[in-house]
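The data layer described in this paper is built around a simple, fixed record for each protein. Because each token names a local backbone shape, the row as a whole describes the fold. We quote a single record here, exactly as it is kept in our systems:

***
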Amino acid sequence: LPLGEGPVCELQLQPYPLEWVEGAFTFLLPGAGITVCGGGYSTCLSLHPFLGTWEEIINPLPYEVAPGAKAISLENGDIMVLGATEREGLSSKSTLIYSQEAGDWVDGPQMPVLMYGFCVVQLNSTHTLLMGGGSWNEDDDELLADVYMFDGTTFQKVSSLME
């Protein structure tokens, strides 16, 4: 990888070691680099920024997350996973937080509705918008038009995509 002018860094990136990554989510973990979790595994692997190797830096997820879960950075540097689930095939209101202080995953606040395939826009270190996507349960499937704001603590409906 050429890094500006001068000598060229020839970092060789190791291929991602797990076969299946569909539905995985990624985030930048301070001190660990790009981290990939989920995708059919509870394992979280971080790409070492200088060696180009994948390493298991943080504890595995406590359960398999839903495909399409999203990750955001919280103001204190923790990572929140939105749309996690304990039941395969169902969208979820649950969230998980990787607490750097605890060095482990803890349950986070409940999302306002069951969601999958939604978009996330992190506005700043404290506010994130969630919008669109769908919601389903065993008997129903619907598109979501509501926009929610997460303020670092709670979720609140702020608008609709249909208004």
Q: What stands out?
A: The chain has no helices and 14 strands.
